């Protein structure tokens, strides 16, 4: 699943491509993805005036003051393909024949901006697109999302308070979008490694020193991943369809049975909150 760094990478890429271009055509190939009525009608003739992100949710600010919300969930991709002078999407576009690394097999929605097309691909079809007004957008971003790690809202006071009286595992805590927004399986494991905390520890048993480490680790890990344009494990591609390069920087995630880069013990993988969870038995207590 694309997490905060991957969604942020897509946001930055698309910003350069689709801002201020009038939407010419919208093609819905799979109705399951689109969660609002009059979707096509509302988008045609409209323009995207800004792109925001809340956790893993992309928020496209429309010219008419409505918002297009896009969540990629498990396998969603949002890819922009520019058109050449003759109006074809670069890569020999014919809607069936595209360049090698791009297939329209799982394309669910296509938005044509004149200068190029934005493809929403989603193999598993858990992602969605939805148009909402100001009030509903505010409700969603305040009710469904906790503190946002790379913003001024992520303060020590607020972070420290989150740990009060919670009895879940730290892994479940970090994955809960209503507590901290944007971490998924990869960066939750990496944050625990960075702070030296075993992912199955109970939140209320984590001491102040460890909470302080976690507070520093979370933004540090996310920023480095953004710098590397995200991690491609299965299906993530950026707004241009390219893979992220953060994979080689991961310390525990996806490294089961490999040697820890810090202490040389073998990385372990366990099942926690239904997710494959990686940690180093040497570095994490
Ligand atoms: Zn280690």
TrEMBL record:
It catalyses: Hydrolysis of DNA containing ring-opened 7-methylguanine residues, releasing 2,6-diamino-4-hydroxy-5-(N-methyl)formamidopyrimidine; 2'-deoxyribonucleotide-(2'-deoxyribose 5'-phosphate)-2'-deoxyribonucleotide-DNA = a 3'-end 2'-deoxyribonucleotide-(2,3-dehydro-2,3-deoxyribose 5'-phosphate)-DNA + a 5'-end 5'-phospho-2'-deoxyribonucleoside-DNA + H(+). Pfam families: Fapy_DNA_glyco, H2TH, zf-FPG_IleRS. GO terms for biological process: base-excision repair. Monomer. One of its GO terms (molecular function) is zinc ion binding. The keyword Hydrolase applies. Keywords: DNA damage, DNA repair, DNA-binding, Glycosidase, Hydrolase, Lyase, Metal-binding, Multifunctional enzyme, Zinc, Zinc-finger. CDD domains: EcFpg-like_N (cd08966). Belongs to the FPG family. Its cofactor is Zn(2+). Signal peptide: none annotated. Residues 251-285 form the FPG-type domain. InterPro entries: DNA_glyclase_Znf_dom_DNA_BS, FPG_cat, FPG_Glyclase, FPG_N, H2TH_FPG, Ribosomal_uS13-like_H2TH, Znf_DNA_glyclase/AP_lyase, Znf_FPG/IleRS. This is Formamidopyrimidine-DNA glycosylase. It comes from the Bacteria. SUPFAM superfamilies: Glucocorticoid receptor-like (DNA-binding domain) (SSF57716), N-terminal domain of MutM-like DNA repair proteins (SSF81624), S13-like H2TH domain (SSF46946).
């Amino acid at each position: 699943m694309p997490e905060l760094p991957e969604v942020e990478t897509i946001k930055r890429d698309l910003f350069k491509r689709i801002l201020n271009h009038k939407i010419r055509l919208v093609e819905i190939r799979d109705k399951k993805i689109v969660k609002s009525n009059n979707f096509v009608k509302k988008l045609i003739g409209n323009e995207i005036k800004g792109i925001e992100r809340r956790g893993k949710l992309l928020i496209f600010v429309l010219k008419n003051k409505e918002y297009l919300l896009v969540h990629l969930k498990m396998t969603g991709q949002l890819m922009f393909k520019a058109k050449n002078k003759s109006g074809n999407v670069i890569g020999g576009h014919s809607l069936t024949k595209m360049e090698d690394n791009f297939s329209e097999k799982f394309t669910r929605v296509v938005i044509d901006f004149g200068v190029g097309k934005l493809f929403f691909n989603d193999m598993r079809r858990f992602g969605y697109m939805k148009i909402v007004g100001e009030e509903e957008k505010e409700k969603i971003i305040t009710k469904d999302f906790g503190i946002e790690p790379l913003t001024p809202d992520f303060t020590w006071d607020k972070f420290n308070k989150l740990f009060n009286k919670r009895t879940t595992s730290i892994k479940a805590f970090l994955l809960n979008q209503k507590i901290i927004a944007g971490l998924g399986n990869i960066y939750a494991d990496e944050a625990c490694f960075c702070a030296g905390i075993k992912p199955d520890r109970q939140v209320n048993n984590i001491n102040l020193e460890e909470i302080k480490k976690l507070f520093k680790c979370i933004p540090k890990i996310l920023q480095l991943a953004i710098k590397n344009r995200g991690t491609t494990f299965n299906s993530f591609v950026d707004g241009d369809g390219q893979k992220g390069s953060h994979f080689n920087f991961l310390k525990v995630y996806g490294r089961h049975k490999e040697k820890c880069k810090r202490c040389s013990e073998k990385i372990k993988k366990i099942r926690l909150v239904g997710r494959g969870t990686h940690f180093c038995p040497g570095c994490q207590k």
